[in-house]
Design goal:
Strand content: under 5%
Radius of gyration: 17 Å
Distance between the termini: 18 Å
Largest sheet: none
Number of helices: 8
Order of helices and strands: HHHHHHHH
Mean pLDDT: 87
Length: 192
């Protein structure tokens, strides 16, 4: 699947499950482009990692969301603030989110195992850990720059460089550098 990704944000509204599917597909494609850009920004940190491996790994990002049944259930919460949900809705949403995250973790670990970057018991290699870091930073940068993310997740979203999900100062610095790249800001990924 080849997507030409417009890295500018805010041009789309989400009114249907089909729109939400497209939004998710574009997010995955942007994460791929941002991950490759991060490798270019930090070639010493991510040396000896084939760009094709990064692209393929990041292509598996958020794949669990693309299951039609899961996507439809997730879309039913689109635009709802977590705080405004009833206790029953929050419990349903939390359960769904946890299942999606577990499936995505399994998909990622299966990819790492298949490519010799994790043992059968799930011990991840140094290169595998670097791929996971690239994924986390690229995902958070895209989420932080996409104005639809706060609507999708029903909460305020912060820049990746200020995210509580990046623990190390080095990862925050990498995220900030990626946030400033024209590719992340408003360029076209197909021109990168």
């Amino acid at each position: 699947l080849l997507l030409v990704v417009n890295m500018s944000y805010g041009e789309t509204t989400i009114d249907t499950v089909a729109d939400f599917t497209r939004h998710t597909q574009l997010h995955i494609a942007r994460v791929q482009k941002l991950g490759l850009e991060l490798q270019k920004l930090y070639p010493k940190e991510f040396r000896n990692i084939d760009p094709k491996l990064i692209e393929d790994f990041l292509g598996s990002h958020d794949r669990a969301k693309l299951d039609p049944t899961t996507l439809s259930k997730l879309y039913s919460f689109f635009g709802k603030s977590y705080e405004s949900m009833s206790e029953n809705e929050r419990n349903t949403f939390d359960t769904l989110r946890n299942k999606i995250n577990q499936r995505d973790s399994k998909i990622g670990l299966q990819f790492l195992k298949k490519n010799g970057l994790a043992t059968a018991f799930g011990k991840v290699s140094i290169t595998g850990k670097k791929l996971l870091l690239i994924q986390k930073i690229a995902d958070l940068v895209d989420r932080g720059l996409d104005p639809l993310t706060s609507v999708e997740l029903g909460k305020e979203i912060f820049a990746a460089s200020n995210s509580i999900y990046l623990k190390s100062p080095k990862a925050k610095m990498m995220a900030q550098a990626l946030e400033q790249r024209p590719l992340a800001r408003a360029g076209r990924a197909d021109q990168a």
